[in-house]
Design brief:
This protein has 16 helices and 21 strands. It is α/β, with parallel strands linked by helices and about 575 residues long. Among the domains are: about 105-165, Oligo-1,6-glucosidase, Domain 2 (Oligo-1,6-glucosidase, domain 2, Alpha-Beta Complex); about 465-555, Sandwich (Immunoglobulin-like). It has an eight-stranded parallel sheet with strand order 11-10-9-3-2-1-13-12. It has a five-stranded antiparallel sheet with strand order 14-15-16-21-18. A three-stranded antiparallel sheet has the order 5-7-6, with no helix packed on it.
Length: about 575
C-alpha cells in the first residue's frame, strides 16, 4: 500500500490516556485505546516524544534517544504497543528530535566536562571581540539564541529553549549517531519516522548576522546541506526499508525546498509539513497577535502548495491541527453555533486534497480550545514566555492573556475527552492539564449519536476506495470566490469537485453543468444539493453554513471556471 492512500493519526501520549491515575498519559494508556484507533481506519500512529526528558519543552528536549521515559512506561510497553497496533495493520511513527538535545543529555554533559569529542557535537562559538554574542539570532522561544557554555568563555547555540542545545550536523560523528538512533528504533519494529524541525540542521560553518531589517531564520533554514544530510541518513537507516513512511517538519520553508525534500527521485523524505496556511491569522506575520483569519490568503496558500508540490513531484502532509497549534475549529470556523458543520467541513478540505492527511487526537470528535481564564492555567514554556514578553511590550494583563489564549500550544494539549466527568475518561486522578468541555464533547457522545466521528471514518475510507482521492491530480477552482474554498481532482476519467464553505450563512457557487448529474461522494448535510439556474453552460449550487460537498462524475468535464 502506498502512503498516498494512507492516513496518519497523531497521539500526544502525555494527553491521550493515563493508565496509572497519576494524571499524565502513558504508553499503556495508548495500548488500552488501540481498538478505538483501529476503528478509525488509519494506517499509522505518530507518537510525540516519549523519551527520557526533563520536560522543559514537553518531551522535545530529549536526554536519551534510546529509552522510554519512566513516566511514559517501559521499553516492553513500547514493544507491546508496536505489536498491538501491528495486529490491526497499523504502523508506529516515532518522533525524531534531532536538531537539538536536552542540555541534560550525556553528550552535552560530557562536553561541559571538557571532552573535546563531544564539544564538537554542538555549535560552540566565542563572543565577538567587543564581547557581543556570536550572532544576532533570536531564539524561537524568545531571547537570544546563544547561552554561556559553562565557564569556558564559549557560547552554545539554542534556536529553541535555553535547555535545547543545537547539534552540529557538520560533524560526521553526529550524523553517524543520528543514523544509529533511527536504526535502534527500526530494530524495535518502527517503520515510520517524523523528523522535528529537520530543515534547520544545515547551518553553515561560518555563522553570520542577519542583516538589519531581515528575518534571522533565513540565515539557518533550508540550507543546501539539509538535502545532503537527509540523503545520507536515508541511505544509512530508514531508506533500507521500502515500506517506511517518513515526514519532515519544515520550519519557515519554501515550496521549492519542500519539492526537493519529498521528490522520490531525491531519496530524502516521503512528505513534508509546512505551516504557511496556519499563519493567516498572524497580524503582520507575528504569531503572538490576534486577528480574524484571512480566507483569501488561506485559499491562496493551500492552492500554491498543492500546485507547486504537484508540479515538482513533491508530496504534502495535510493537516489543520497538531500539538503545536491551537484547535482549527476556533481559528477558522464557528465552534459555538456550527461545531459539527465546521469540524466536518474542515476535515473535508484536507482529506480530499492531494497529499497524506494527518488527524490529531480529538479532532475527530470536534474538540475545541479550552476556555481558560488565567495564565496560571497554561504550562507551556513558549506561552509563558510570550505572556511576559507581551507585558514588556506594553500590553495589559488582560490583553496579553487574550493573545495567549488564542495562540497557545496548550490549547491542543488538553487531555483527550473520552467521556464526561472531571477526568474526561483520561485519568482517575488530577489531569496535568485541565480538560476543555468534556461534558458536551467526548468520544462516548460521538459513538452514541455524534456526526463528526462517523464522518471522519467515512473520509478515511474514501481515500482507500477512490484512486481519484489518493492519486488524482489537483486543479484549483474559483479561487476568487469570497466564501468557498474549492478544487477539483482528476484520475482516469473520474472527476471530483470539492466545495467547502467557510461562512456561517448560505452562499452559492457556479459549477460546470456536468456536475448537476454527479453523484454526491460525501456531504456534511443530509439533504440533496440545491441547484439553481445560472447563465450559459453553468449551474449554481447553494451551500448551507459551513457546508462541505464533494461531487463525483465519470465523464469529460471542462476546465475550472477560474484558476487565477
Amino acid at each position: 500500500m502506498s502512503f498516498h492512500d494512507s492516513v496518519v493519526y497523531q497521539v500526544y501520549p502525555r494527553s491521550f490516556r493515563d493508565s496509572t491515575g497519576n494524571g499524565v498519559g502513558d504508553l499503556r494508556g495508548v495500548i488500552e485505546k488501540v481498538p478505538y484507533i483501529a476503528s478509525l481506519g488509519v494506517d499509522h500512529v505518530w507518537l510525540n516524544p516519549f523519551f527520557p526528558s526533563p520536560g522543559r519543552d514537553n518531551g522535545y528536549d530529549v536526554s536519551d534517544y534510546r529509552a522510554v521515559d519512566p513516566a511514559m512506561g517501559t521499553m516492553e510497553d513500547f514493544e507491546e504497543l508496536v505489536e498491538a497496533l501491528g495486529g490491526h495493520g497499523i504502523g508506529v511513527m516515532v518522533d525524531m528530535v534531532l536538531n537539538h538535545t536536552s542540555t541534560e543529555h550525556e553528550w552535552f554533559r560530557r562536553a561541559l566536562e571538557g571532552d573535546k569529542h563531544y564539544q564538537d557535537y554542538y555549535i560552540l562559538r566565542p563572543a565577538r571581540a567587543d564581547g557581543a554574542l556570536p550572532t544576532n539570532w533570536v531564539s524561537k522561544f524568545g531571547g537570544p539564541a546563544w547561552a554561556p557554555f559553562g565557564d569556558t568563555g564559549l557560547y552554545y547555540l539554542h534556536l529553541y529553549d535555553l535547555t535545547q542545545a543545537d547539534l552540529n550536523w557538520r560533524n560526521p560523528a553526529v550524523r553517524a549517531e543520528v543514523a544509529d538512533i533511527v536504526n535502534f528504533w527500526r530494530g524495535k519494529g518502527v517503520r515510520g519516522f517524523r523528523f522535528d524541525v529537520i530543515n534547520v540542521i544545515g547551518k553553515s560553518e561560518v555563522l553570520l548576522d542577519a542583516p538589519p531589517g531581515t528575518d534571522d531564520r533565513a540565515m539557518y533554514t533550508d540550507g543546501p546541506d539539509v538535502h545532503t544530510y537527509l540523503r545520507e541518513l536515508a541511505a544509512a537507516s530508514f531508506g533500507r526499508d521500502p515500506g517506511t513512511v517518513t515526514v519532515g517538519e519544515m520550519s519557515s520553508t519554501s515550496i521549492e525546498a519542500c519539492v526537493g525534500y519529498s521528490d522520490p527521485a531525491n531519496h530524502e523524505l516521503d512528505m513534508v509539513f509546512s505551516f504557511h496556511h496556519l499563519k493567516v491569522d498572524y497580524a503582520e506575520g507575528q504569531k503572538w497577535t490576534t486577528m480574524d483569519f484571512d480566507l483569501p490568503a488561506l485559499k491562496r496558500v493551500l492552492n500554491d502548495w498543492a500546485v507547486g508540490m504537484q508540479a515538482g513531484g513533491g508530496w504534502n502532509a495535510l493537516f489543520w491541527n497538531n500539538h503545536d497549534q491551537p484547535r482549527a475549529l476556533n481559528r477558522f470556523a464557528d465552534p459555538g453555533r456550527y461545531r459539527v458543520e465546521s469540524a466536518t467541513m474542515l476535515a473535508t478540505v484536507i482529506h480530499l486534497m492531494r497529499g497524506t492527511p494527518y488527524v490529531y487526537m480529538g479532532e475527530e470528535i470536534g474538540m475545541t480550545d479550552p476556555a481558560y481564564t488565567s495564565i496560571g492555567d497554561y504550562v507551556d514554556v513558549e506561552a509563558l514566555n510570550a505572556y511576559q514578553e507581551l507585558l514588556t511590550q506594553g500590553l495589559t494583563q488582560e490583553e496579553a492573556f487574550d493573545v495567549v489564549r488564542a495562540k497557545a500550544r496548550d490549547n491542543a494539549r488538553t487531555p483527550m475527552q473520552w467521556e464526561p466527568g472531571p477526568g474526561a475518561g483520561f485519568t482517575r486522578g488530577t489531569p496535568w492539564l485541565r480538560p476543555a468541555n468534556q461534558d458536551q464533547v467526548s468520544v462516548e457522545a460521538e459513538e452514541r449519536q455524534g456526526r463528526i466521528l462517523p464522518y471522519y471514518r467515512r473520509l478515511i475510507a474514501l481515500r482507500k476506495q477512490y484512486p481519484v482521492v489518493s492519486e488524482g491530480s489537483y486543479e484549483p477552482y474559483a479561487l476568487d470566490h469570497p466564501d468557498v474554498l474549492a478544487y477539483q481532482r482528476h484520475h482516469e476519467g473520474q472527476h471530483l469537485l470539492v466545495l467547502c464553505s467557510f461562512r456561517a450563512y448560505e452562499t452559492t457557487i457556479e459549477v460546470p453543468a456536468d456536475f448537476q448529474d454527479s453523484r454526491v461522494l460525501v456531504s456534511n448535510y443530509d439533504d440533496e444539493p440545491t441547484w439553481l439556474a445560472s447563465d450559459g453552460a453553468d449551474v449554481a449550487v447553494r451551500l448551507r453554513p459551513y457546508q462541505a460537498l464533494a461531487l463525483l462524475v465519470s465523464c469529460p468535464v471542462r476546465s475550472s471556471l477560474q484558476t487565477d
